[in-house]
Amino acid sequence: MIIGKNFWDEEKDAPILKRNGNYINKENCENVCKRAEHFYEIMLSYIKEDINVEIKDDCNDKEILRIIKLDAERTFNKEENRSLLIEVLQSIYPITNDYHQGISFISSFLLLFLEPKEVIKIITGLHKYYLPGYFKAMPKAYVRDSRVFLSTLNYFHPNLHEHIKNLITPEAFVSKWFIGLNVHVLTFESLMLFFEHLLKEGDIFLFKYSIALCRTLEQEIMNTNDVSKLLALLRLDQSLFPNDYKKSEGQKIGDFFLNIIEASLTVDMTNIDLDKLRQEACEQMRLEEERRKQIEMERFLTDDEIIFSDEEEDYTKSGDDAGKCPSENGEDVISAADAGEGDGKEVIQDAKTGMAECEYTEKTICEDKDVEKRECEYMEKI
Asked: In a structure prediction context, what are the per-residue pLDDT tens digits for the chain, which is 382 residues long?
């Protein structure tokens, strides 16, 4: 895409290029594309088998297609480039059987250098062999691994672990690293290096990178108790870390980001048992889910015992027989007639009418209560 004749004029301010940092330009774009062409070769050396994919002309899920089109509009300026991204994303959808915006981030970055079919191959490989379960609308595998990251951080840096844990959950920020694969986080120069190491080492590199990033920002992280500031730090927000950011005067532009990748290579994961940590995280998630269901049930039972205002009006009036329906045998009618409140026929008719009204009132109250119960259950689900 970037070697297209008009690309740099039409897409120079496209959202996908915000982290380019002048790394790629008209003069060197062909060389960068050749470098990216090795991505799939690196993947093949890791997964040991070729991947066959097909280009899809349409998506059978119209809602997913609507979201895909919106993501394409948020990524590129030119309709032709948006169409290429849509083609890639709707071709990936039957493979993942779900959709997460992270797929759009990765695909749009790769499309800058590669043909659509090559992009689909790499995304398919990531989905099947590197990050299974990550590219879901509700990615439990990602939630599990975000907690594994926090446990790993506790091994290397207990102080950082405790500080972060007390302020935010890992799910709130790790997605930028694990699902979006640092597109919109790292500058393109460092992002190319990140992809090469990830494809070479597998998912373990994500944890090494995460530890290196936290280690790099240790002082800044420990010095803030502001949740928004902490999130911005961990996501390498561009407002705090622009493309030309230098941590010290001696650094060159881009070194800060490159140094995080280089530091990742020194993180020794030998003593980290990812399988065991994943099992522990899954058990923790299972217990949390059981607790959530228990709380929902307790709330449901509590709501079921609530006396609603319309019930109070009909059933809690003063007097021993307040709200009592006239009996079918007319006992209440006879007592009313004896009291001189009308002749027997009129009172009997009133009794029948009263009985019907009471039955209707009881039914209405019951229905209202059921409606409120259903509404409560619906809100609980939401």
From this structure: 999 989 999 999 999 999 999 999 999 999 999 999 999 999 999 999 999 999 999 999 999 999 999 999 999 999 999 999 999 999 999 999 999 999 999 999 999 999 999 999 999 999 999 999 999 999 999 999 999 999 999 999 999 999 999 999 999 999 999 999 999 999 999 999 999 999 999 999 999 999 999 999 999 999 999 999 999 999 999 999 999 999 998 899 999 999 999 999 999 999 999 999 999 999 999 999 999 999 988 888 876 555 555 544 444 444 444 444 433 333 333 333 333 334 443 333 333 333 333 333 343 334 344 434 433 443 343 3
For the chain, the 3-state helix, strand and coil shares in percent, each to the nearest 5, are 65, 0, 35
Instruction: Tell me how long the chain is.
Output: 382
Class assignment of domain 138-275? Answer: mainly alpha
Q: Cβ distance 100 to 179 under 8 Å? A: yes
Q: Domain ranges in the chain? A: 4-128, 138-275
Closest residue by Cα to residue 125 from 178, 175, 187, 198: 198
DSSP code at position 323: T
CA distance 72 to 313: 57
